[in-house]
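Researcher: Re-running this chain for the archive, since the previous output was lost when a drive failed. Same request as before.
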Amino acid sequence: MFVGRRLSTNIHNQRTFATLVLSEQFNGKINNNLCNVLTAVKQLKDSQVDVLVHGEQCANQIEEVKKYAGINKIYFSNSPFLQNPYGDSIAQLTKSLV
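Model: Regenerated structure tokens:
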């Protein structure tokens, strides 16, 4: 599980950070550690917590993530190449969001 911070600006042109959580999946199911990571992220008191879901046919995974409170946005990438991804493919996907 990876947690990163994204730089953004608000209407007053002040810099703020959003937290991006990369969800891990195995055989089409979200890793149980997502709950622990989201609990830890709450301690950052960040109002912008986003989750990235990736894999092939990830609709069920997205529905699982929606059950967690405190998530601002859910990003997803539905591709067979991301079913069991290597670090490079996830890094490129994450970079495109930042």
